[in-house]
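Summary for the funding panel

The consortium committed to producing paired sequence-structure records for every protein in the target list. Below we show the first two records in order, beginning with the earlier of the two.
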Amino acid sequence: MRKLLKHRKKMSRLIFKFDLKTFFHFFVVFTIIFGALTLIILQTLTTGIYKTTDETIDRLSKNPLVLLSLASRDNSDSSSLYQVDNFDDPILSDSPSVAPNQTVVLYDKNGRVLNAKSDITSNTLSSNLKFSKANLSKITTVTMKTATGETLLYRTRLFKVSFDKRITTNITYIQLFVNVNQLSESLARSQFIIMTTMISFWLISLFASIYLAHWSQKPVLIAYEKQKNFVENASHELRTPLAILQNRLELLFQRPTATIIDQSENISQSLAEVRNMRILTSNLLNLAKRDDGLKVELSDVDHTYFEAIFENYQLLADNSQKQFSNNIALKGSVKLDEGLIRQVLTILFDNAVKYSDPYSEITMTVAKIGQNLIITTADNGYGISDDDKNKIFDRFYRVDKARTRQKGGFGLGLSLAKQIIDACGGKIEVQDNQPKGTKFIIKLKV
């Protein structure tokens, strides 16, 4: 009882550590995904919302005459900005219209503002205005504050210009400002919605990580339990023959002068246990190979394949004082793995021989029904209870341990048979045989 409690405590600690580690991995992955997704969406949104404005700035920057017209509109003393030599040539006419939120600031070659009466260069905002050649030809975002404390946001570009020879002016640089307060407010609202949504999903990922941590550990724990049970059962099965061998060999030493005939019983029993151990280790090796994956090699077989197998079974049945009969209702050929199916049939036949009384009947039938090959093995032996039917294909499980040990079984044959049938894409099930005994039914798609 103490060992069981100690084992459960150890398992609980292992499960907790595994849970915590797996949860942390899932949560970190979700955090990175949502963080990267948020950055990408915000960057795309910011770039997209100013795209039209930046395209407008770029278009107007290529037409300085339009910007000169806009500066003249905002400055009442336009004569101080430029002079046109030929008034009959409408070089400033038919220019694209400009929006009210667009403002132009003109500079001379020294960076001095020429249109001092514009909105941007008024006393209210002039303290925030800075001329810098470092931003030449670049679209940047600037913030200015009014006397009332209101914040105005502009997208702007400073660029160097040259005019037609008919225009006399000392304008060297033009800076275009486009007010984007409305766009900025819309961007802020969108960013808030995106951040709120992402944080909500990030919190949901917390619970998802907990669930996935529990879910992902189940197959690991099941595999661990199967491995532990397998090792315990294998150790238990090997313990008995080893103990018998030890006792028999000790008996040989107690009578060192005895002849082989005198010790024949001890030698015979020792050899019997060695054979049992060889069979057990061979079965264990086969199961280990099957766990690594079965390689199914299909080939065409007909009724002669089963006839040859059943002919050998007839001889074995006669030697075991059993009545054996078979029925093969197979026309044409079917595709199956000859070696694997022969191994399964041998396991079922061997079980039927072991767990039935002398002179009892064993019947094996083969029939093709539709696209399925049905193989049935029936005996009128001891039978299997309903509870045992659910466990009969588990490794080392035996219906009657005392009788099985006496018959030389280890509870591995049916487990191996099921693995083979599963690998072949078929099904195997156990039923009661009427009026007495057991029936194993194999269904293979051929």
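The next record, for a separate protein in the list, is shown here:
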Amino acid sequence: MNLQNRPIRLPALFAAVVFLLLVFTGKIAVSQTGSPGNTENKKKGSPLHLFIIGNSFSGNAAKYLRELSEEGGHELTIGRAELGGCSLQRHWEIAEAAEANPDNPKGKAYNGKSLKMLLSEGKWDVVTLQQYSMLSGDVDSYRPYAKKLYDYIKKLQPSANIVFHQTWAYRADADGFGQVAQGVLAKSEKEMWEKSRAAYHTIARELGASLIPTGDAFWRISSDSKWGFQKDTGFDYSQPQAPNLPNQNHSLHMGYTWNNNKLGFDSHHANAAGCYLGSLVWYGFLFHESPVRLKFVPEGVADDFAAQLKKTAWTTVQTVGKSSVK
């Protein structure tokens, strides 16, 4: 066909000219990636409203949940009632104080607000609860506070799905582990995981609630011969020299860090990899969707380790029943 002699269709030409003018004037944004099927810009279903009642461990576990949700195309609203080291008993006592006297400052422990005030700020689809990690292996420490909080939340948010966040055990080289009975501490990371897992499952069964199995995912990594953390036995812990640190490859916990020329040790809280694993578990649980395809990885987490964390998170969520709450 002779293109020079091909007739020009004026409507199509006019539309093309208008489109170009809109592009040049900024009225239309053109993707620089050339991928019109980008799922990051697509929202899936209705927004999920999540309210977290917890402490620093819930802050760790949900640290990257927003980034993962945005990439996965899930709209997410998060409310929080978190206090460092806060147990179920303390959360309940705060709520009880506010019920007895709404003006009592003890009942407004969450930045000047009570739990009732925070829970009443919207309609929440999912509300999470967790025990203080030091008490997580002692099932008696959950009673009667878990049920009191469960009933209290149900009264304020009758349609909410209340779930328990199963926290994790401390790192294998910790100088102490959580309580498993009154006056009795776990002797190892494995025992702390086993006892806390049993306690969470017992309470969840009693209340007919589901579990976010973050603690199980941590243990799957920690106990893996290839991916689990191994203590660096060649490091001189008695006379450390700044800024040298022991090899902490594949650690999920903060571990050793230098601060003002002092070597600190935190075997409890999650580092970037641990926070990432926790957020991956929460993502899989909340949206009943594998996080394996997601590309977001926090700075400092190696690609091969990140890939293993994603697979482990989804396998763990699938292993524990009732993984979807939507």
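Regarding this second record: The longest strand covers residues 262-270. The CA atoms of residues 177 and 186 lie 5 Å apart.
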